[in-house]
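Posted in: Structural Biology > Protein-Ligand Complexes

Title: Requesting predicted complex, magnesium ion in pocket

I'd be grateful if someone could produce the 3D structure tokens for the following input. Sequence and ligand are given below.
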Amino acid sequence: MSDSAKQKRKKAAAAAPPLPAAEQSLALLRQMQLIRAFEEKLRSLFSAGLVPGLLHLCAGQEAVAVGVCSELGAADVIASNHRGHGHCLAKGASVNRTMAEVLGRRSGYGLGRSGTLHLFDSVNGNLGTNGIVGGGIPLAAGAALSAKRRGRGEVAACFFGDGALNQGLMFEVLNMAAIWKLPAIFICENNGYGEFTAIEDVTAGLNPVARGTVFDIPSEAVDGMDVLAVREAAARAVARGRAGEGPSFLVCTTYRYGGHHVGDSQSYKDAEEVREWKEKDPILKLSRRLEAEGVASAERIAALEAEVQAEVLAAVEAANAEALPTADDLGRFLYA
Ligand SMILES: Cc1ncc(C[n+]2csc(CCOP(=O)(O)OP(=O)(O)O)c2C)c(N)n1
Ligand SMILES: [Mg+2]
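-- Reply #1 --
Done. Output follows.
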């Protein structure tokens, strides 16, 4: 390694956020591993024709969901988007009920009728995944308004993609949230693509962070491949919300390894680009740090990985043993 490369690494290490206590660090890792395993299993089930509808996976983006949700409490609320399994699981959704819902079984959160795109989990404060680009943004603002009126210091967080940066609705909501000082956290997962289109082909303005600063909302660019960096930024945003200081806007730079949905061949992406981003993998990154700083051995990390794989397999088995929804279930909501 050249001297300048060594210096670069040293500088990066100095700037890296400190590791939380061992138990918390391992919990962050396990949560990211779980999301990855959950979706990898779904990918193979989808290929076998066993998942109804379209399937949008978040592999590569796990650090954003996990970093943000690790700073939220049970009474805080999230709103998600179409790439939402990670958000749901990170907010505390049961693996079994989430799997059952995506596989269309009665034991799912919506009796197997909502599927991956309308996965609503009132038990854990999740206003749901959402098929409308930017659709979760006003829902989170509404939840933030209600939290503000309750006055217990709760916050509402919203995850959306870079594609939502150009939705008129986002500007209206940011304006309202700023004027009313809502305890809302707007989290843009900038993975560089909206469906099959690169962000630079459709989004004017070089810096998406400016979408927040124009409303005087504290806004920051975050390394979305580093769960600890996301967590730190989220902690600042949550503290502002709880203290009555209003909304925050985070732009997390990240990447989806797969296509827009399973089955998209990604002909619009360069294979080298995918390879480069995989080198920044959030799970690998945290694993390496845990090993390097003596918090967990490679064996301990592999054991966690085996544990989440088993949990996911058990969830699939449990879902498969469940009934399909009946015609009577149509229109019914499940609140517990
Ligand atoms: C209002 C609206 N317009 C268009 C679509 C079709 N659509 C579904 S996902 C998507 C791209 C979203 O990109 P982004 O917000 O960056 O999220 P990503 O898929 O990258 O996670 C589009 C255009 C939609 N669902 N809703
Ligand atoms: Mg995108």
